[in-house]
Amino acid sequence: MKLPVEKLALYGGQSVRSVPFPERFLIGKEEKEAVSALFDRAIATGAAIGYAGPEEEAFCREFCRFQGGGYADGVNSGTNALFVALRALDLEPFTEVIVSCLTDPGGLMPIVMNNCIPVIADTEPYSLNTGPAQIEKLITPYTSAIVVAHIAGEPCDMAGIMRIANQHRLPVIEDCAQAHGARFRGRMVGTFGKISAFSTMFGKHFCTGGQGGLVYTRSKKLWIRARQMADRGKPFGLPPGASNCVASLNCNLNEFQAAIGRAQLKKLPWIVRRRRAFVAKLRRSFKTLKAVSLPEPLPGSEPSYWFLRLRFHPERVSCDKATFCQALVAEGMPVTASYFPVPHFQDWYRHRRVFGTSGYPWMSPDYKGNRNQTFPCPNAVAGEKVLFRMAVSESWGESELKDLVNGFKKVEAFFSQGKGEK
Q: Do 289 and 415 contact (CB within 8 A), yes or no?
């Protein structure tokens, strides 16, 4: 006997959730008071509010405490955090930098802006992250560094990646823009490589206002170099009387952003705990689903969940991924059918639109590698067919959990009609 199946909102039925999921309410009175205090001091003293002042110094110190030690410098975006991290390594131009294929364009563009050649690593199967095997096959005599992005707050296999990097004596830059507070084998992401980049834009786990970022390292020498590269080559760390020591850009964070960041940083441990607890409950509830699974992170990982990576199993239902996700959205579920930002498939990369019409850095006669090499990334392409993303927030509770479970079950039940029947 076939049980009645509820009509989907996609086809005119009543949706599971008729109101949007709650906003994060990330900004509160603490941030307002921190900025107001800056204004009060400026008004009282007559001194303008600038950058590289006491707020940034305190912010960086407190961030390093969160990371378990080290050194940090505040910058004005996550993209510039990666730019500065690369520059701090003093990579030779027209050398190759291996980089994860699934990343924001800002996770790849700083490589070419440093006149280096991005070499694109595929993901591990059905993952959003690259791995040691994908990286190792790309290493050539021209490789100068490796950039590893921890996508969605899920750590990469840093043990395997560092083993390969150390064997070849290559520095690793960790792109932690989506992974604040994530751990791998008990260590914070960002502490494995030589230097790391964090984004603190408004959509991340914690923010410094609309935009911002941090460059982080355990090396004092690299930190000094990063400070120089983030502020037009100013002679930070050099003897008195030294002048600007290298040509670079102004990537500074300002005191307003740092003040907001300090207030935000106090909330970060709670944010990460809440997200982990919510996902743990969701994982238990989703175990009854057949069409969708919530893949396990790497063993030893403690993700911080910027969003959730979900896997669709098309063989178990009568629709494709796009239709299934459309139905979920109609039910009020916060899902997106695709997470496929592949910068090297974009026009700027395909047409080498970096420095005029020169084709640089690829077309430089000083580049000795394969300038026509292509990177099809079959694992990432295969993953795109079955992986999709769902938002997650520290502000969600039992009501949101219940609606998510009911919404997914409703859509699955509808598209499971006839599946497996004799």
A: no
Q: Which of 11-25, 174-188, 272-286, 339-353 has the lowest mean pLDDT?
A: 339-353
Strand ranges for 252-317 from DSSP E: 292-293, 301-302, 308-312
Place of tokens 């990369």: 349
Residue range 86-96: mean pLDDT, rounded: 98
Residue 117, beta-bridge partner list: 96
Separation in Å, CA 363 to CA 93, 97, 117, 311, 357: 12, 16, 10, 40, 10
Say what the pLDDT of residue 312 is: 98
Average pLDDT over residues 100-113: 96
Q: What is the pLDDT, as a whole number, of residue 3? A: 52
Q: How many angstroms separate the Cα of 402 from the Cα of each of 307, 385, 407, 414?
A: 18, 27, 8, 18
Burial 58-71 (b: 16+ CB within 10 A, else e): ebbebbbebbeebb
Written in H, E and C, the secondary structure of 176-239 is: CCCCCCCEECCEECCCCCCEEEEECCCCCCCCCCCCCEEEEECCHHHHHHHHHHHECCCCCCCC
Question: Does the domain spanning 29-265 belong to CATH 3.40.190.10?
Answer: no
* Residue 112 in this model has a pLDDT that exceeds 70: yes
- pTM, rounded to two decimals: 0.95
Structural domain spans, the chain = 29-265
* Lateral strand order in the sheet of 71-75: 71-75, 213-217, 195-199, 172-175, 143-149, 96-100, 117-121
Cβ-based neighbours of 226, under 8 Å, separated by 6 or more:
73, 84, 85, 87, 88, 195, 215, 217
Question: Would you state the torsion angle of the CA atoms of residues 275, 101, 177, 308, taken in this order, to the nearest 10 degrees?
Answer: -10
